[in-house]
Amino acid sequence: MRTQPIVDATEMTAAFAAAALAGTYKDPQQRFEINIPTGWTAEPFGEGVKVARGAAHCLVMEGQAPNPEALVSHLAGQVGSQWTRFQQLKQGSATLGGQPATYRFHSGVNVMGVPSNLKVLAVSSQGTLFGVIESSPEKQFPAAKAGFEQIEQGFQFKPGQVPTRQQQAQGTVVGGVARVGPAEKAGIRAGDLAGSGPGDTIEFVVVRVGRQSVVRVRVGVFHGQ
User: Fold this and answer.
1) Would you say the pTM of this structure is higher than 0.85?
2) Mapped to the 3 state alphabet, what secondary structure does the chain carry?
3) By residue range, what is the domain housing residue 63?
4) Number of separate domains in the chain
């Protein structure tokens, strides 16, 4: 009599998870990758992507806001202005692509007149904000919930190339500034990265803490040692 091999719960979970994935969506701009659950399809949506199954869908897009909380509020407000009986049911913290994210969960009646649920998440990765909008009719939500969770868990940010100060601008690091001199009066400080051209009045492109500004300095005569 042959003995059947024993498969533990961890192996079974991994096997089912692998079988439930249809493939991977790779962002054309190489910002992220998304695992696509079986039965779901992915297609470009503006500068982002739409992953859908029936009336349930997940939108991923880059956002502009001071922080993830502000982006969640903005996106939820946009959707809420089009729905009726829109109300927030829950808010909290989540994880997206291994990064801490904030989210809000809502219910309401969508533009098609269908009672639906809405979850909005936002995350910051390498200085870029991403918003995720998950929407599903209430009747389909139990079946769609597993797909949404797989998308969240399988979300991967692509590592970006962060330029150094020397790569951001060509110039010279300012070692020191003479007191009460033209440079000091113009606001230049030691440690700034500056580039200049010849002439009586020099225009400096100053890089300080990653930000650039332009100052003009009239060349003077240094009388010190």
Assistant:
1) no
2) CCCCCCCCHHHHHHHHHHHCEEEEEECCCCCEEEEEECCCEEEEECCEEEEEECCEEEEEEEECCCCHHHHHHHHHHHHHCCCEEEEEEEEEEEEECCEEEEEEEEEEECCCCCEEEEEEEEEEECCEEEEEEEEEEHHHHHHHHHHHHHHHHCCEECCCCCCCHHHHCCCEECCCCCCCCHHHHHCCCCCCEECCCCCCEEEEEEEECCEEEEEEEECCCCCCC
3) 9-157
4) 2
